Amino acid sequence: MRLLALLLCLTALPAAAIETKVVKDVPYKDDIVSPTPYEQERCKLDLTVPVGAKGFATYVWFYGGGLKNGAKDLRSEYCAEIRESLAQGGVAVVTPDYRLSPKAKYPAYVDDAAAAFAWTVKHIAEHGGDPRKVFIGGHSAGGYLALLVGMDPERLKPHGLTLGSVAGIAQVSGQVLTHYTVREERGQARYGITSDEAAPAFFIRKSLPPILTIYAQNDMLSRAEENMFFVTTLKAAGHTENYSLRVDDRDHGSVGHGLRNHDDPARLAILNFIAKQSANR
Predict the structure, then answer these.
(1) Yes or no: is domain 5-279 CATH 3.40.50.1820?
(2) How does pLDDT run across 264-275, given as a tens digit for each residue?
(3) 0.85 exceeded by the pTM?
(4) How many CA atoms lie within 13 A of 187 on its CB side?
């Protein structure tokens, strides 16, 4: 398993406070002719950008909630604090809402995640960002969404994009097999083992964007092992830009929610990963 000692030794992150601006509730499916009422309600994003900066990288961040719960303004998900904390590292942060199960079924929420990423690539230059430096990630179910969008070449095709549009994936404790909510929607057992087109692991191959995998020492049952399996299988497939970090003394919730703290090791790893990969774009 490849650890992040190199990344954590990169140039120090900005120490001074960065002025940021938040643009709220931007519809990211504005190119759809007839969105459903539920799409109109849920398919909006918040954008946090560093004021006065140009050519910055952008990180599209999806919250968790098992594909059943969550909102970008929900206090328990700490989305506002996370986006501000990461933006203090000099990157723009996009936090989208997406449709949820059971009101929406697979692949609706994955399609939403792809649309939010595509909107960012197509519009971030209007806010000063570099469209070549758009990263994607998330926590838990959000990590699952990020991996599918960043690994399955079919997800971005409807938006005229390819996996080459993804500067990198930085995900935290995401499910890499077919998500248990997707299996439940199909009438399958929650803890059955499935890896099909709804599983990021199904798309493991050498030619993928750079990937950073973060998980907790005390993660939810089987999730740490699932992420370790993911990292080692990427390595076996010859994927070289493959990094991982186990955060000690954290559980499934705190490994994601801790990103709002400036000294958090997962936050520093994500920002350094974005800095390194941005330099290669």
Answers:
(1) yes
(2) 999 999 999 999
(3) yes
(4) 0
